[in-house]
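Please fill in the sequence for the structure shown.

STRUCTURE ENCODING:
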């Protein structure tokens, strides 16, 4: 049986091409909602611990889920030694993330599979936009003094505006962690509102840097405040913290997305980032997304994965699915 034949777990009828979602318009800061926010740590830990044992997919089904994951990857390079040549190679990989012979063997050769976006520093936005012209793949720019987020506020806003002017369709901002750690929710709300306005038509992903926020309750509250202020996505990490994306933090954030949707009707996206490099790990994130939020949140307009080396391992697993043999990791370079 081909991957195409069993694609229903990944692309059911209700998830076929759809109209663009209305953007999250935000709402007034609700301090009462924040003060009532709790996270049951032991229950959350039990929920996450049981996930791998309760959910498993093999063979064609696993290949289908991994191909879906490819379409949600924000293929990323955020290194101090980045060059325009590296960014352009990454863009070429984003347009053809899986070898054509593998797609053909799985009955998916005509699907035009690409990654969800390319994510780069502002300096390389214009080059990435040029390299991706006509592909439909958006460029995301990290901004607001990434990764520490400690630049002056007016500088952060100008950086956002410059990236949008260069063609970035998405902006990944970093919040000021101090606002969370000191419980200054009004300051966080005001900051996020300013970022949203500066983005204009570009969608904004709010990076919480969850590894710096100390508690799951802080993560939950920061998630809510950013959504109240109009974030289109909430994102775990810059990838530069000591602890980045984890299933436990993901669960806390997804439940706030669900609560916000129930209260406002707006669908906010989720992006785990940092340390996600193995295909088997991204499957658990996908399962958690589907179980907590529903099938609609598995599409790239609501789910992104910030990663650089994950794509290589997915392609390696897909080659094993087709040939029965594992190849060396370095045969599947990201760009």
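FILLED IN BY: designer on duty
SEQUENCE:
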């Amino acid at each position: 049986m081909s991957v195409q034949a069993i694609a229903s777990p990944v692309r059911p009828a209700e998830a076929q091409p759809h109209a663009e979602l209305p953007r999250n318009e935000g709402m007034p800061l609700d301090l009462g909602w924040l003060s009532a926010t709790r996270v049951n740590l032991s229950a959350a830990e039990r929920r996450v611990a049981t996930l791998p044992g309760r959910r498993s997919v093999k063979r064609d089904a696993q290949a289908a889920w991994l191909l879906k994951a490819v379409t949600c990857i924000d293929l990323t390079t955020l290194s101090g030694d980045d060059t325009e040549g590296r960014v352009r190679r990454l863009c070429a990989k984003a347009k053809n993330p899986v070898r054509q012979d593998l797609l053909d063997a799985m009955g998916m050769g005509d699907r035009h599979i690409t990654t969800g976006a390319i994510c780069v520093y502002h300096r390389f936005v214009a080059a990435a936009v040029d390299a991706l012209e006509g592909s439909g793949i958006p460029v995301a720019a990290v901004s607001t003094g990434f990764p520490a987020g400690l630049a002056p506020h007016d500088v952060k806003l100008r950086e956002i505006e410059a990236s949008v002017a260069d063609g970035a369709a998405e902006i990944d901002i970093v919040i000021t962690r101090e606002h969370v750690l000191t419980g200054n929710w009004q300051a966080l709300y005001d900051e996020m509102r300013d970022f949203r306005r500066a983005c204009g038509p570009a969608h904004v992903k709010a990076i919480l840097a969850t590894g710096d926020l100390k508690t799951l309750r802080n993560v939950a509250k920061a998630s809510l405040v950013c959504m109240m202020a109009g974030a289109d996505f909430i994102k775990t990490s810059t990838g530069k913290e000591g602890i980045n994306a984890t299933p436990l933090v993901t669960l806390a954030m997804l439940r706030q997305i669900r609560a916000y949707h129930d209260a406002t009707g707006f669908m906010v996206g989720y992006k785990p980032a940092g340390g996600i490099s193995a295909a088997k790990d991204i499957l658990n994130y996908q399962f958690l997304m589907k179980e907590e939020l529903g099938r609609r949140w598995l599409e790239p307009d609501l789910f992104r994965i910030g990663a650089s080396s994950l794509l290589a391992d997915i392609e390696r697993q897909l080659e094993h699915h087709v040939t029965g043999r594992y190849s060396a990791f370095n045969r599947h370079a990201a760009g």
